[in-house]
């Protein structure tokens, strides 16, 4: 394999490649040794080490497992999210790393379909809208869409996490993209509801003040049964790990689920919306 002499300060990608190579060589491993452990080709790993390939979250997580960095504060996955963080809300990269390891994932979202349930076209439409407003660059838009895809890939694991989503009715009443793209997105929600490890509910407008939350909220149950919560304002996100704050949030989420539509009624509402589009 070709070997470039990297200058870590040259770019975030070069810094990642140099660190990966250093970790591999410190263990006395060849590219083939790491390839066997990661189930990525040696040429792919070489491309990342030489900064010719951009590292993905999935790649970094495979490397972390192989290099026994999981559970430390110095994972390669953290490095990937630092590279991408220019296009992401403060606090969100830390949340996504926890999400990819969670045993149970609970969402409440208002206004837009949450990332784990977005089609690529829907994610693209949102990102391009931000570009037109001048809030992010075209490159950052691409990074946002990539993160959505990588989050979805991270949850397609064995065993699969239990994913529960409560969406405000506004999420399915606000069309995004073309008519065909919006119809595909609504179909994606129905497909999600039909999966064995998911629970899908809509919080209808008729709930009024019984809707417990006014901002998006995500709750994770980790493998050790610890629970963390993530909430966002317009400018930043915050990951809360203190149980005395997280416990009442989880209790309120259960109340939200109790008042929301059942999964069959939620799917029926989406089907009705789709029928009204034809």
Describe this structure in words.
The chain has 278 residues and is of the alpha/beta class. It folds into 2 domains: 8-84, lambda repressor-like DNA-binding domains (434 Repressor (Amino-terminal Domain)), CATH 1.10.260; 90-277, Endonuclease, Chain A (2-Layer Sandwich). The chain has helices spanning 12-26, 31-38, 42-49, 57-66, 76-84, 92-99, 120-133, 138-154, 170-173, 179-193, 243-259, 263-277; strands at residues 104-109, 162-168, 198-203, 217-221, 227-232, 237-240. The protein has a 6-stranded mixed β-sheet with strand order 3-2-1-4-5-6, sandwiched between helices. The longest helix has 17 residues, at 138-154. The termini are far apart. The model has no long low-confidence stretch (mean pLDDT 88).
SSE order, one letter for each helix or strand = HHHHHHEHHEHHEEEEHH
Instruction: Provide the structure class.
Output: alpha/beta
Name of the CATH class of the largest domain: Alpha Beta
Strand order of the largest sheet: 3-2-1-4-5-6
Number of helices: 12
User: Mean pLDDT, rounded to whole units?
Assistant: 88
**Got a strand count?**
6
By CATH, the topology of the largest domain is Endonuclease, Chain A
**Envelope shape:** globular
Indicate the CATH architecture of the largest domain. Answer: 2-Layer Sandwich
Proportion of residues in helical segments: 40-55%
Strand content: 5-15%
Rg, alpha carbons: 20 Å
Instruction: Return the domain count.
Output: 2
Summarize the biggest pleated sheet: 6 strands, mixed
Q: What low-confidence regions span 5 or more consecutive residues with pLDDT below 50? A: none
Distance between the termini: 56 Å
